Every structure is written in structure tokens, then in C-alpha cells.
Amino acid sequence: MNPSTRKQTVTIQDVWEARKRIKSIVQPTPLITSPKLSQIQQANVHLKLETLHETGAFKVRGAANKILSLSPEKRKAGVTTFSTGNHGLAVAWIAKQLGMKAVICISNRVPVAKVNAMKQYGAIIERVGDSQDDAEEFCYQLEKEQGLTVIKPFDDQHVIAGQGTIGIEIMEDLPTIDTILIPLSGGGLFSGIALALKSYQPDIRVVGVSMENAAVMAESLVAGQPVVLPEEDTLADSLLGGIGLDNQYTFQMVRDLLDDMIHVSEEEIADGMAFLLEHHQLVAEGAAATGVAAILSGKLQTKGKQIATIITGNNVDMPVIARILQKRFL
Predict the structure, then answer these.
(1) What CATH number corresponds to the domain at position 65?
(2) Which of 29, 38, 200, 286 could make a disulfide contact with 235, Cβ separation 3.0–4.6 Å?
């Protein structure tokens, strides 16, 4: 995209405004130390537990900030979104709190656990095609036909700023942090947290962690522009989906804020999920375990002393957990 046509970027002031806007509906989450990971990495390793939100994932922050910023007229008309699950859950839950209509467009790849939870919050579910891109196309069709406001999953100023509140909380709890591992897909989470942390500590090392299968953001960075890849099955299903060829914010922000990238395999993701359950009694979906997977695999090369990663969500089908545990412990 021509820089002259790019929208205004996201600022740290936007993140602070998001914190004020969502504080009545989204609570801060704890940052805990992992003794075992600290031993493995020979550094102090901390876990940010975004699994403790009502919806079981961090996405509620960005969704709340966006929806609460809408005019009364737009709130009355309702909202729609396209989602791999967690963002849809967040939009459905926020809409329920505010008494709004919500239509969630998903592909056939979204796990049953997430679909059932969205229905529980009263959202209308539209299953469309086999990819996030199919769901996105249908979502914008609904916007035109029904006058609904599209709540983008990641490439939106308010959504990015909302996710950035995680970074403020981490800085408050661990001001000496020097390395952060952030699951990377569409880039909303990464952009918000990296912006917040680097605004206060420019030298902090920000590491993106992506799955090996269909890593669209990673491939886009290599290509120097947003690209399209076919989706593949992965334990980290929350990281599936494209970044949009007309990406407005996250591609540029990730490119500018990223210090290093780590790719983790399906086996390594499964190891991370099993580790969190065994050592912290935490159910984590595949995407949430990518930072832990990077440490367990030995791929994180750092001299840092204070490391944190984000346990982004716990919405995973129980048969998936059962298969992972059976393979490793039985």
C-alpha cells in the first residue's frame, strides 16, 4: 500500500485510552512465574494468564474496546465478525453484556468447543466455507445487507489498542522484563503488546512465535508484503487465517516492532500444551502454548533474565487434549 493512503497508526495514548474504556468490563490478568521453564531457560520465565477471562482468551480486550467505541446508533444495529473462534467468542460475550445483536461468521475449521460457547452467549452463527477468508467475505456481505458493523479480529486501531493493555499490565507487574514471546498470526496481539512495551522500554526484545503450518504473517514479512496462503490443519487453530492483502496496520507494525521470529512444529506445540497441564494445571489451546513450545524446544536464544510469554486462550476441544496426554503419559 502507498504510505500516503495508510491510516493513522496506533499510539501508546490509544492503549491507555483503551485501558480506561474497558476497565469496567475486562479485568486484569495475573503474571505468574514458571519454576520449571525458568530452570530450562536459565532465566526467570513468567506466564501471562489470559485464559482467565470470561471467554477464556485475550480477544475480549480488543473486542470490548472496539464495541464500546461505537456510536449508540451502530450499537443498536448490531455487530458482525469473522473469526477462528476466540474473537467470535469475545464479540458474542461483549454484545450479550450490552444487549446487542451479534452475528459470527466462521469456517468449518473452527473447533466445536468454540462454536458451542458462542451459541451460549446468544450469537447467531454462520458457518461459511473452509477458510477464514471465506468467513470474512460473507461477513462483509452481511455488513452491506443488514447494516451491521464489522468488528475486525486484528487489523483495527481499537482492537490493537485493546490487546496492548496486556503490555501495560506486564510492565506494571514486571518492570525489569527484557524479553517477551508473543504468539503471532494476524498481528493484533503482537502489535499492541510490542507497542506498549517498547514505548516504555525500547530495548526490550520482542519475539514472535508462529506455527510452521500456513504461517501467513511470517511469509508476508519474508515477501515484504501481505501474501495469501492456503490454510492447513494445526493445533494452533487460533493462529489460522490471512492478514488481508489490504492490511492497514498490523503488517507494518509487526515489521517495525519484531526483533526475532521462532517457528514451532506441531509436536512442539503439543509438548507445550502438555507441559502447561502437567506443571501448571492449565488447559491451553495450541496457539497459547507456542511461547512455551519455543522455550521447551531450545529455540529461544537469549541472554535475557526476565522473560514473559502470553498464554492466550484455553478454548480447545477435549478430545485434542486427550490425544496429546495419551501419547505422552500413557
Answers:
(1) 3.40.50.1100
(2) 286
Could you list the residue range(s) of the whole structural domain that residue 142 is in? 59-150
pLDDT of 271-313, one tens digit each? 999 999 999 999 999 999 999 999 999 999 887 799 999 999 9
Neighbours of 227 (CB within 10 A): 16
- Three-state DSSP at 212 gives coil
29 secondary structure, DSSP code: -
Assess whether 64 and 144 both reside in one domain: yes
Radius of gyration (C-alpha) of the chain in whole angstroms: 18
Give the count of domains, the chain.
2
Q: What is the mean pLDDT of residues 209-238?
A: 77
179 pairs with which residues across the strands? 205, 307
- Return all residues near 210 (Cβ < 8 A) that are at least 6 apart: 183, 184, 185, 217, 218, 239, 261, 262, 263, 264, 290
Q: What is the pLDDT of residues 125-181, one digit of tens each?
A: 999 888 878 888 999 999 999 999 999 999 999 999 999 999 999 999 999 999 999
Backbone angles phi, psi at 261, to 5 degrees: -130, 135
Whether residue 172 contacts residue 196, with contact meaning beta carbons closer than 8 Å, is answered with no
Q: pTM score, two decimals? A: 0.91
* Alpha helices (runs of H) in the chain, residue ranges in sequence order: 12-22, 35-41, 60-68, 72-77, 86-98, 112-120, 132-146, 157-173, 188-200, 216-223, 250-257, 266-280, 290-296, 318-329
Cα separation of 234 and 139, whole Å?
24
**What would the grid cell of residue 131 be?**
477458510
Rounded to 5°, the CA angle 239-248-259 comes to 60
Nine-digit cell at 258? 519484531
Q: Is residue 7 part of a domain?
A: no
Instruction: Report how far residue 135's alpha carbon sits from residue 104's, in angstroms, rounded to the nearest whole number.
Output: 9
Question: Do residues 42 and 91 both lie within one domain?
Answer: no
